[in-house]
């Protein structure tokens, strides 16, 4: 059962669970005793033999029952919250370890919905159904048994209703389940759409796509609307059938009971006890009838969550202790691509048998037409994807042999779009730094990344909020913050995706200065878009449609590589 497998991932609060079970059994037993006590009290009153002790005992037991009910209600909610916490923590720690390739094929909104809606469904099932199961079964079985003992003729009358209710409930239960599953999927899709649209709201607006997105949203919303209506229609059939049957039974029982009292074959106390048991048994019965539908629905949610948990994670090798790690501590080391081929999917091979060396502490620039595979080389170095063939080595050791986090710690990656996280400037500068840093470090990094001046102009200085993905900063400011972020890590290897978007010349100078500070004494690989960069590089790699067609200095390639010299003349190289 997937639910058990999933729940096994969470540390079960066993003592709490045990207390809940004991309390709910105790409460069920008291509930079963109450009608008998009521009967005795009523009959005692009828015979004028009731003592005040009887009344007090009755009230005390009633109060204990209420107290046990209240306490177990709280404890069940506590159990649910603990399980939700555990599940969300476990699943989140897993989804954050899933490789980038997983997110290439999955909409993030769907993952969000798993973490929110599906976990909630499981919580509802546990707190409202599973934990009450034992006490409900005890109450139903106990009440029916007591009914038979008290008066079998009346009980038979009650049982006539059960097949009528079952005939309606069972087939409809399956239908409700199907609708619930459809609803879960539609909701996940809608969350996906919401996430996509809201994260790119500027794009939506400048391309006048509001109407289009609204009509996309409309489809999901209509589906949700129709499914809710379907659910309502089903309920509008089930509910009156069940209620009328129950009322019919109740009236018959009351009529027959009153008749029996009038002819003296039933005491008033026993009659009240029967009604008491009847009411007591009906509520858990209704809840139990929905148990299997809810269970199936929860199994659906559980399976999706468990599948997410089973998805293959990035290979971390965190506990690996061997000599290879020592290499990573040394600063000097060449990186080599040896016969590397790579494809994101079967349709297209992006890198084809690529061989080159990135010498330590030198600048290597990669140039080539759009889509030739330049960024892919960075992703492979960051181990965001695994090579399909060949290997990438550092100190002649396959980079996969290094623990992933240790390896990534050596690399500073300044992305072209200068991705920032929502939060403050300080949080962005120190992003991913787990050791302590001082105020002085912060100022030093801001200074060498040329950010100090513009940060000082903000009212909140380092605590200025940058907005989602840094929307409140200018392009040049964002770039300088990302350069600062890379500097903070003091990486040995630097991956720099030079921005194609042109900054104004003043900003450009600031960014260039920051880059020069960043590059110093590091093994640098730049995706180059400027003539000054390629001229400064120790070697240039020309990548064309996934194949390296030339390696050399700017002057060498200008004289020997026709496409390179043409490229230099025609691209936006200044
Ligand atoms: N996540 C992905 N899934 C599938 N294909 C991808 C993915 N990322 C890139 N590609 C494809 O891989 C090829 C190389 O892309 P890459 O981004 O490495 O090129 P590039 O040289 O950096 O281009 P540009 O200069 O335009 O940024 C392209 O054909 C692209 O469509």
TrEMBL record:
InterPro entries noted in UniProt: AAA+_ATPase, ABC1_TM_dom, ABC1_TM_sf, ABC_transporter-like_ATP-bd, ABC_transporter-like_CS, P-loop_NTPase, Type_1_exporter
Predominant subcellular localization, coarse grouping: membrane
Protein keywords: ATP-binding, Cell membrane, Membrane, Nucleotide-binding, Transmembrane, Transmembrane helix, Transport
Gene Ontology terms for molecular function: ABC-type oligopeptide transporter activity; ATP binding; ATP hydrolysis activity
ABC transporter domain: residues covered: 335-570
Source organism, top-level taxon: Bacteria
Membrane topology: Multi-pass membrane protein
SUPFAM superfamilies, per database record: ABC transporter transmembrane region, P-loop containing nucleoside triphosphate hydrolases
Xref: SMART domains: AAA
Signal peptide (from-to): none
Compartments it resides in: Cell membrane
Residue intervals of the ABC transmembrane type-1 domain: 18-297
Residues that span the membrane, as ranges: 15-36, 56-76, 130-150, 156-177, 237-259, 271-293
One GO cellular component, as annotated: plasma membrane
Stated name of the protein: ABC transporter ATP-binding protein
Species this chain originates from: Lysinibacillus halotolerans
